[in-house]
Amino acid sequence: MKIFNKVVIIGTGLIGGSLGLDLKKEHLVGRITGLSRKKRNAQLSKNIGAIDCAATSLEVAQDADLVILATPIEAIIDTGLKISKIIKPDCVVIDVGSSKENIVTKLSRVIPNFVGCHPLAGSEKRGVENFQAGIFNGSICIVTPVTKTNKNALKKVRLLWKSLGSQVIILSPGKHDRVLASTSHLPHGIAFALMNSIPDEFLNLSSGGLKDSTRIAASDPDLWSQIFLSNRSNLLAAITSFQTELEALKFALKNKDKKLLIKILKLAKEKRKKLG
Amino acid sequence: MKIFNKVVIIGTGLIGGSLGLDLKKEHLVGRITGLSRKKRNAQLSKNIGAIDCAATSLEVAQDADLVILATPIEAIIDTGLKISKIIKPDCVVIDVGSSKENIVTKLSRVIPNFVGCHPLAGSEKRGVENFQAGIFNGSICIVTPVTKTNKNALKKVRLLWKSLGSQVIILSPGKHDRVLASTSHLPHGIAFALMNSIPDEFLNLSSGGLKDSTRIAASDPDLWSQIFLSNRSNLLAAITSFQTELEALKFALKNKDKKLLIKILKLAKEKRKKLG
Q1: Nearest-by-CA chain B residue for A119
Q2: Structure pTM?
Q3: What is the pLDDT of residues A120-173, one digit of tens each?
Q4: Residue A4 DSSP code
Q5: Which domains does chain B have, with CATH numbers?
Q6: How far apart are CA A48 and CA A92, in angstroms?
Q7: Which of A40, A74, B193, B264 has minimal Cβ neighbours within 10 Å of its Cβ?
Q8: Which residue of B has its CA nearest to A199?
């Protein structure tokens, strides 16, 4: 069953491209046009079948039924504002950015059918060669409607994510940003800082623990700088909470307090179990 | 080719038990006796073929050609001191503890053929059900001889690890402890503190990044408290280095300094690449 007919994906990166692959595979939409600043990227996406047609001008959004804003987060608001002037009144617009408050506030004002989304999928890898069908299947997609969000648009967007196998969770944009600061942006910040604290000559002497815990430090510096800055105050608060916990660990170590150490580690292990 | 005839493994946990499995599989030793405080553990190890014979008394070390100290780190020195009084003069003794300076200093004094070892293998899991053949194959084993280490014993121990497929790296005990504080003990400490900083109600909203970066927070609290305390001053220094890097990230965030942020993240990504 087609949920939307003409779809435009703006930004054929890992999420945009993988979305294209899945939407087509599941026959959820009609024709997909993919936009990229670099013509080559959109062309490659077309070659692997993630989109039907490659373009570079936003004008193609004019007759779209669904526009997916999948650019780096810094460009989402500007791009949304630009297309708001040319899209059809009933065109549904979603974004897939990693922070939501700013984007949803600004774009809900100018796009009647805007629905903020954040699929918790993807990886530290970028680009066409890493497009992957099925990455949304079994993953969580947080959808962040606000009071003025059109109910019908919301319904169709929820159905879209569900049809891709995602578990849809509804959060306010503000709550989303506090949660993600803690569960995603903080771990990334820690992984970057952890890597930087390890002397170069020690790097060849590490085991699996360090590799796993810093996999996300291989993420794209430009993209993640944008994500960090887009959720700056929540991330700063999350870092401060983490610093308090690290100080507790240091305190126990300094005082050779094994009982307290075990208590701290036990609590962490219990919480880790809940992550699955 | 047998390197040692009669072997006693004291502590049939994940490392001791997996070592037993591999030593037998590769026919590197003769008969293996496994010791455990809990008779059931040693018996289970026997049942799965990790050892030939289960025991609970240290007396079995009397006629051993190789003793492997694989107890929790807190018990290694005491156990080593005890067996030093009963082993044959030419018996080789190794430990597999996660910190080396204290252990090597104390046991080299009383055991002529003591060689400190630290195989960088294993995982956050414990117990017989997680024994795994082949975990040393392709992994690094750090061996930490000191001036008084018997050359012949060192040669045989290196051969043993090589025969299991390990890459043997020679470090001084002090250097080992500084390296491991940074590449293993610090990441564990961070993972525990990170888990503790995440509000319970956010735990079901995390993606792969958090899961990977906190896998090691599921490690055993008692064992890891012991490891932390055994390498306390190096770990405290490593935490301080990490805190400095985290403050740099915070500084860039507070000042909305995207250029500096990208510089920090790029450096981390480059270092992460070297980890492989």
Answers
A1: B207
A2: 0.92
A3: 987 666 666 667 778 999 999 999 999 999 999 999 999 999 999 999 999 999
A4: B
A5: 7-171 (3.40.50.720), 176-275 (1.10.3660.10)
A6: 26
A7: A40
A8: B182
